[in-house]
Amino acid sequence: MADTPYEQTSGYIPHTDSGFRDWLQNFSALISADPGRYGLQATDAAVIASLYTNYDDLYNKVQSAATRTPGLVTQKDAVKASAKASCRVYAMQIKSNQGVDNQDKIELGIHVNDPTPTPIPEPTTAPLLAITAAFSGEHTIRFADETTPTSKRKPPGVIQLELYVHVGTSPIVDWTQAEYVGVYTKNPINYTFMPDQANQTATYFARWRTAKGLCGPMSLPVAMTIAFGGPVDQQLPVGGTTIPADDTGEEQIRIAA
């Protein structure tokens, strides 16, 4: 067994040159010491050892300014890609072999699936809504998480946003008066209205939802007048908020007749 077992991180085959070299060194050393322990043959161990030797030689050469050349870097990358492809086949073969102990798989640096995945809890944060554009008979709404208002990412475990809308003569603050209109996964949301709703006010609420249907707390409301062919004025009821400009610097409200 290798002196220091390789410690798994995010992926079972690291992307960096140094990380892959360490992974491959450990992978080769353990298999060479006892191929049968992993359901392999001595010839398999020899192939893996050769992959490590070839890559390690090129890896060391490109670390030195005296020996590093563009051609050598290209060769190193090609050998690395070939070694990764070959080792991935061996790794998946070992991973699917029920006769190999899970701890042995982990020590090889192979990811072992959790037989009892941790349940995804209900969301603890709320979406942050912003009406970013208003056209004739239509509102464009963007959403983000309240803890990361400039990021497009949803919270961990969240796959959808539940949207609720109330149309009336004035904004509201009680989401239970709003109507559930559907779930959305991508920004932005374009919500349209009927002509007979002109000059009324649409108030929006939303909450996060997981794949199991668990929902988080409701967002603060945002509201805007529904216009058809006329000027549009944004309204924010008590407790309303807006999303700061994102990393693209896009304006947060556009109005068009």
Short précis:
This protein has 257 residues and is α+β, with helices and mostly antiparallel strands.
Provide structural commentary.
There is one protein chain. With about 260 residues, the protein is of the alpha+beta class. It folds into two domains: about 15-105, no CATH class; about 125-255, Immunoglobulins (Immunoglobulin-like, Sandwich). Helices cover about 30% and strands about 20% of the residues. α1 runs antiparallel to α2 (about 40-65) and α2 runs antiparallel to α3. Mean pLDDT is about 85; it is low at about 1-10, about 235-240 and about 245-255.
SSE blueprint and pairings:
Layout: H1 17-33, H2 42-63, H3 70-96, H4 102-107, E1 127-135, E2 138-145, E3 158-168, E4 179-184, E5 189-192, E6 201-210, E7 222-225, E8 234-235, E9 254-255
Parallel strand pairs: 1-9
Antiparallel strand pairs: 1-2, 2-5, 3-4, 3-6, 6-7, 7-8
Helix pairs in contact: 1-2, 2-3
CATH architecture of the largest domain, please? Sandwich
- Please write the CATH class name of the largest domain: Mainly Beta
| Major sheet attributes | 5 strands, antiparallel
Radius of gyration: 28 Å
Which geometry do the CA atoms define? elongated
Mean model confidence by pLDDT = 86
Q: What is the count of β-strands?
A: 9
- As for the CATH topology of the largest domain, it is Immunoglobulin-like
* Helix run count: 4
- Which superfamily, in CATH terms, is the homologous superfamily of the largest domain? Immunoglobulins
- Poorly predicted runs: 1-10, 234-242, 247-257
User: Distance between termini?
Assistant: 72 Å
Portion of residues in beta strands equals 15-25%
Helix coverage percent: 25-40%
In N-to-C order, the SSE pattern is HHHHEEEEEEEEE
Helix- and strand-based class? Answer: alpha+beta
Provide the spatial order of strands within the biggest beta sheet.
Answer: 4-3-6-7-8
Question: How many domain regions?
Answer: 2
